[in-house]
Amino acid sequence: MDHNTFKELDGGKIRVAIVRARFNEEITQGLLNGAVEALHQAGVTDDKIKVIEVPGSFEIIHAANVIAKQNTYNAIICLGCIIRGSTKHDEYLASAVYSAMKDIIIEHSVPVIAAVLTVNDKQQAVERSSTGPMNRGTEAALVALEMANLSL
Q: Phi/psi zone of residue 50: left (φ > 0), alpha (ψ -120 to 50 degrees), beta?
């Protein structure tokens, strides 16, 4: 399966905030690990990476908005995991989270990168958060670097 391709960018000047939901923690921790590793490989040092943890994916909205208002970071990466259940709750939650992230981008003119998984089952979540080319946290970090470089 082909994946997105990204430019190789020097992240030495980039400051990144990462908002991670603790709900479905083993999944979101895998996303965080992938994101931080990719940022490090691009030259972003720990002092330029801020990790903020929130209870769940819905709370990502508030944290990302607070961070965007600070105008301190070149990009915000949002990490969460919404797994389909027996009701439509997952659909409403995902729609609200993604819509709010779009609003933050428009209002604050900062890249807000969405790696909030919306999956049918836990196995899909594990596939997208484990080490390897499918890790969406890694992908989000690469997108953040590329988008942040547009404003430098």
A: beta
Catalytic residue among 40, 62, 89, 108: 89
Buried b (16+ CB within 10 A) or exposed e, 117-149: bbbeeeebbeebbeeeebbbbbbbbbbbbbbbb
Backbone CA torsion sign across 138, 37, 97, 16 = negative
Q: Using alpha carbons, select from 7, 101, 34, 93 the residue that is nearest to residue 63.
A: 101
Model confidence pLDDT, tens digit, residues 86-135? 999 989 999 999 999 999 999 999 999 999 999 999 999 999 999 888 99
Q: Where are the alpha helices (DSSP H) in the chain?
A: 25-41, 60-70, 89-108, 122-127, 136-149
Q: Which two tokens stand for residue 14?
A: 């980039």
Asked if 89 is an active-site residue, the reply is: yes
- The reply to whether 130 falls in a domain is yes
Which helix (DSSP H) or strand (DSSP E) does residue 52 occupy?
strand 49-54
Q: Give the CATH number for residue 69.
A: 3.40.50.960
